[in-house]
Amino acid sequence: MTRPVDIAFTPAVKAAQERKGSRAVYVGMEMGRSLDDLAPFIAGVRSFYLATASAAGQPYIQHRGGPPGFLHVVGDRTLAFADFKGNRQFITTGNLAENPKAYIFLMDYARRQRIKLWGTARVVEGDAALEQRLMPEGYRARAEQVILFEVEAWDSNCPQHIPQMFHADDVRAALEERDEKIAMLEAELAALRGAK
Prior knowledge:
Elements (H helix, E strand, L loop, with lengths): L3 H5 L2 H10 L2 H4 L12 H5 L3 E7 L5 E7 L6 E2 L4 E7 L6 H8 L2 E8 L4 E12 L3 H7 L8 E15 L10 H27 L2
């Protein structure tokens, strides 16, 4: 797998780093790692951003969301997801038809982690078996197509400036667990008081 620095650090980026005093930190940095290292992180993803660009270079970022596990690692360098029916603008689909370069940005606000993935993507239409395989069980959505993302490089960022936020389902589960413990302790206390 390619190192992210070899993709992201263009001559103009290196010049900016030199001018602003951070170039020495990145010289020789080895950041290329296996996609296997990301599998546990990806398994918990509930949403991410997919960036594409038209042939003319006009950028576009689209949010993708679903239940944990809707983004799949399907190969040594391949991610895939069922692309759910949405607003039907098909900007991402059109961009990928003329420019396969793509970028995925994953954010875990609860753990204050972010992952950046560089690669290429393509749309797979009409493959019902693949759509079914990637469709989250019990999720109320319809797959319109599948997007396969070939990872060229990935990197993680430091947690600086990432606000810590929690998903409503996680907060609800934590509060229910707390309430159950309180109810159990109150029952034990009432039993102890009644035994006197």
